[in-house]
Amino acid sequence: MAIWPFIFLKDKSLKNDTILLNHEKIHLRQQIELIWFAFFIVYFIEFLIKLIIYKKPKLAYFNLSFEREAYQNEHNLNYLRHRKFWTVFKYL
Ligand SMILES: [Zn+2]
């Protein structure tokens, strides 16, 4: 879980998981772009909308624009170097 400026891990062994860390770093960048607090408001509102659409919390979660961007790019460790500002909105 990422809450700027920190990344919280369930287990210390995950600190070497570069894919997971890249995923969470993408969320940190999204939070900075949305001035941190707005990120959580937008994330929560989008979650409610997606929950209405998809009916299941897990499906709603995986279809959030923030998660779609992070999951689709977590394997690209150079992604954040080339990512453009507010790219997350392409995943709406
Ligand atoms: Zn995520």
List the helices and strands and how they pair.
Elements: E1 2-3, E2 6-7, H1 18-33, H2 37-54, H3 57-62, H4 65-73, H5 79-82
Antiparallel strand pairs: 1-2
Helix pairs in contact: 1-2, 1-4
Bound molecules: zinc ion.
Give an overview of the whole structure:
- With 92 residues, the chain is mostly helical.
- The protein has one domain.
- 58% of the residues lie in helices and 4% in strands.
- It is built from 5 helices and 2 strands; from the N terminus they run ββααααα.
- It has helices spanning 18-33, 37-54, 57-62, 65-73, 79-82, and strands at 2-3, 6-7.
- Strands 1-2 form a two-stranded antiparallel ribbon.
- β1 and β2 (6-7) form a beta hairpin.
- α1 (18-33) crosses α2 (37-54) and α1 runs antiparallel to α4.
- The radius of gyration is 13 Å and the shape is globular.
- The model has no long low-confidence stretch (mean pLDDT 95).
Q: Features of this protein?
A:
mainly alpha, 5 helices, binds zinc ion, two-stranded antiparallel ribbon, 58% helix, 92 residues
Counting DSSP E segments of at least 2 residues, the number of strands comes to 2
User: Could you tell me how far the N terminus lies from the C terminus, measured between alpha carbons in angstroms?
Assistant: 21 Å
The neighbouring-strand order within the major sheet is: 1-2
What average pLDDT do the residues reach?
95
Give the helix level as a range of percent.
55-70%
Based on secondary structure, the structural category is mainly alpha
- Rg from alpha-carbon coordinates: 13 Å
Could you give the order of the helices and strands? EEHHHHH
Strand content: under 5%
Total number of helical segments?
Answer: 5
Please state the overall shape, judged from the principal axes of the Cα atoms.
globular
Largest sheet: number of strands, sense, barrel closure: 2 strands, antiparallel
